[in-house]
């Protein structure tokens, strides 16, 4: 009798009996870190093996256990068993792992869950950092009760994970206020993230948002290589799914940890590629955090240069700017008189001039609308010549309204020392390239950072036309951007190539703004650029890896699908014929299993080389996986063209294959399908080609087969 057909009392009795008779057991699914491919954790999953009924699905008994409250003793058994197993793995010598255990709503609302968790950890002698408790979004609805419970659990030292994120009722408030360490992207989004733009956007957004909130992200339901690479490219922290392993026993988990990691190494991005990607992200994040730190500082930092006798600000940030009812955009590219009263601007101009002339420790006090601050100006010299001045300002306003004149001087001096220590490190080590360009395209100023990034000193640019250093293919595009900015009076972001001192072309990404005087007359362009060469090269490499097989270099299933869809659309519009070929290596599995994967990989590479020599320029040759390949032939005039190619491919595989000291005899079987004779849709053509391949195998291998009008040829 099925469990669902029993009455309530009988089902309750069965569940209690199962608990007493050890009919429940746990399986474990590995969780891998997507940066390194290392197994770093496992999720404990409950199963029930009844002595008479057999295996009972969790979907059939867990909802009932939750309704009746029996989930509490069952959940406690799961928690204790999972912790016990984790401790046993550690004692076996396995690297410490984090064990994830699902908490039910009934357990969480029990009130004493923190005490039970702490007691179990002590009983099993397991450190709390190796336990992760998973809760669902719906469990967070009762904020007043749940929030204190989660805080108690966090005080123990365990981590909290929000399961099935995006499918429940959680709000951003929960992510902000709840002591959550990790969010799990629901498998329903991961399943189609490589083929559905909306799911892809959702996954990317969740990852980016989590990282901004300093949360870890794990994706469940990773079932294909495409899933893995997509998640790696978008910097997901961890992955879990059938690509690595289905849930297995404790013994199976321990014995196959290296196998799980090997799957990652063979299917995912290389560790070096992943490291570079995370390093790039880390650098960008650090830069943003530095900028944010400057913006939040109570003081202000700014830079200025001498532009033909005019002191123009090239950088400005800090909370003090906003408190004075200004923004950085109102200062950058402008002189003092553009944003200050004439009398105040004239007074400060004398200090600006003294600092530019090389005087050190220039300082002055200011009062703007009741905000009192002191500023220190520090000249930055190169080869004995001042190239820019850094200014640091700190607020010295007594917020309580009580003037303490005697301590004011000491207060300001100490504040300036602390402020300069913070700001100078940031300002002097900035690798952003700041320049001022006039309408004609001539450099009026180039920041000292140009020598660090491009090798040329800033003096080498001044007075030169930008085209001297810019790639000729980018000049017209950049000129159009500059003209558009003046027309719209809006800044733009664009990319271009610039020559470095070695003669190499460096890709720069620029944020440019046009600067106008009070009368609305154009003055110059202020352009801030950064080197993005490595990022572009890396993105290109990632894109290639996402669409190509790493062993043979051929297009993978994903790229072939796109090419096939495109070819079908063109064939429909132009009423052309098209052929699709499905082929594999005969007896490859036997050779691969007998002689090892290294020989198998060499065979696949050699097969790829031989087939390539038979193809036309417009043909698309793809590896689908294993020893299965496809060829798309969009340029055939008649079916015989594809049949002739199949014969050439078969001929190319005949005879001995020499791989070092080893010699093999390898043949291929081929199935052919034609558009429109065998179908007009992608799935139809692939199915008919696969049927023809099966027929070729059935008829003795080392041959081709094509099905036309239900006739096998």
UniProtKB/TrEMBL annotation:
Pfam families: EAL, GGDEF, PAS_4. It comes from the Bacteria. Residues 492-544 form the PAC domain. InterPro entries: Biofilm_reg_signaling (IPR052155), EAL_dom (IPR001633), EAL_sf (IPR035919), GGDEF_dom (IPR000160), Nucleotide_cyclase (IPR029787), PAC (IPR001610), PAS (IPR000014), PAS-assoc_C (IPR000700). Residues 576-709 form the GGDEF domain. Residues 8-261 form the EAL domain. SUPFAM superfamilies: EAL domain-like, Nucleotide cyclase, PYP-like sensor domain (PAS domain). Coiled coil: none annotated. CDD domains: EAL (cd01948), GGDEF (cd01949), PAS (cd00130). Residues 419-489 form the PAS domain. This is PAS domain S-box-containing protein/diguanylate cyclase (GGDEF) domain-containing protein. It comes from Terribacillus aidingensis.
């Amino acid at each position: 009798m099925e469990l669902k057909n029993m009455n309530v009392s009988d089902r309750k009795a069965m569940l209690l009996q199962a608990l007493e008779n050890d009919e429940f057991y746990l399986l474990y699914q590995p969780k891998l870190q997507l940066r390194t491919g290392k197994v770093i954790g496992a999720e404990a999953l409950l199963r029930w093996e009844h002595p008479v009924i057999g295996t009972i699905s969790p979907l059939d008994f867990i909802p009932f256990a939750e309704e009746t409250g029996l989930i509490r003793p069952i959940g406690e058994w799961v928690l204790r068993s999972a912790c016990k197993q984790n401790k046993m793995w550690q004692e076996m010598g396995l690297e410490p792992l984090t064990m994830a255990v699902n908490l039910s709503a009934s357990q969480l609302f029990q009130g004493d869950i923190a005490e039970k968790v702490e007691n179990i950890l002590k009983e099993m002698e397991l450190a709390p950092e190796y336990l992760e408790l998973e809760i669902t979004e719906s469990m967070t609805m009762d904020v007043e009760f749940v929030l204190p419970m989660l805080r108690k659990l966090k005080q123990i030292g365990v981590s909290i994970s929000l399961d099935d994120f995006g499918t429940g009722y959680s709000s951003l408030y929960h992510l902000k206020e709840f002591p959550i360490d990790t969010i799990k992207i629901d498998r329903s989004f991961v399943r189609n993230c490589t083929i559905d733009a909306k799911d892809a956007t959702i996954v990317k957004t969740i990852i980016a948002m989590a990282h901004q909130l300093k949360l870890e992200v794990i994706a469940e339901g990773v079932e294909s290589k495409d899933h893995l690479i997509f998640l790696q490219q978008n910097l997901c922290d961890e992955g879990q799914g059938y690509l690595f392993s289905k849930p297995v026993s404790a013994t199976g988990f321990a014995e196959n940890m290296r196998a799980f990691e090997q799957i990652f190494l063979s299917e995912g991005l290389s560790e070096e590629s992943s490291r570079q990607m995370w390093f790039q992200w880390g650098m960008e994040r650090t830069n943003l955090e530095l900028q944010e730190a400057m913006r939040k500082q109570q003081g202000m930092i700014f830079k200025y240069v001498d532009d033909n006798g005019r002191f123009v600000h090239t950088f400005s940030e800090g909370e003090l700017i906003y408190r004075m009812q200004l923004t950085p955009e109102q200062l950058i590219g402008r002189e003092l008189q553009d944003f200050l009263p004439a009398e105040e601007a004239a007074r400060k101009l004398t200090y600006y001039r003294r600092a530019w002339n090389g005087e050190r420790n220039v300082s002055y006090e200011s009062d703007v609308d009741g905000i009192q601050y002191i500023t220190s100006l520090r000249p930055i010299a190169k080869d004995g010549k001042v190239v820019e001045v850094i200014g640091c300002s700190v607020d010295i306003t007594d917020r309580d309204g009580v003037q303490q004149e005697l301590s004011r001087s000491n207060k300001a001096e100490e504040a300036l020392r602390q402020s300069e220590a913070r700001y100078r490190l940031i300002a002097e080590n900035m690798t952003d390239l700041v320049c001022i360009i006039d309408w004609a395209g001539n450099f009026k100023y180039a920041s000292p950072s140009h020598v660090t990034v491009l090798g040329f000193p800033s003096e080498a640019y001044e007075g030169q036309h930008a085209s001297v250093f810019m790639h000729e293919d980018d000049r017209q595009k950049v000129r159009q951007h500059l003209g558009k900015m003046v027309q719209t009076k809006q800044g733009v972001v664009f990319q271009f190539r610039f020559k470095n001192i070695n003669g190499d072309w460096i890709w720069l990404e620029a944020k440019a703004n046009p600067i106008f005087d009070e009368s609305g007359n154009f003055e110059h362009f202020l352009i801030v650029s950064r080197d993005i060469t490595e990022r572009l090269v890396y993105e290109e490499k990632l894109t290639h890896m996402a669409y190509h097989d790493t062993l043979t270099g051929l297009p993978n299933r994903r790229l072939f699908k796109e090419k096939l869809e495109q070819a079908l659309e063109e064939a429909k519009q132009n009423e052309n014929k098209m052929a699709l070929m499905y082929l594999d290596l005969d007896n490859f599995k036997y050779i691969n299993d007998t002689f090892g994967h290294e020989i198998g990989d060499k065979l696949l590479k050699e097969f790829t080389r031989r087939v390539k020599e038979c193809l036309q320029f417009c043909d698309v040759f793809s590896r689908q996986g294993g020893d299965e390949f496809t060829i798309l032939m969009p340029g055939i005039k008649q079916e015989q063209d594809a049949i002739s190619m199949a014969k050439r491919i078969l001929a190319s595989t005949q005879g001995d294959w020499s791989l070092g000291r080893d010699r093999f005899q390898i043949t291929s079987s081929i199935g052919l399908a034609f558009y429109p004779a065998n179908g007009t849709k992608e799935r139809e053509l692939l199915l008919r080609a696969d049927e023809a391949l099966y027929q070729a195998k059935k008829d003795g291998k080392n041959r081709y087969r094509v099905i036309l009008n239900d006739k096998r040829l």
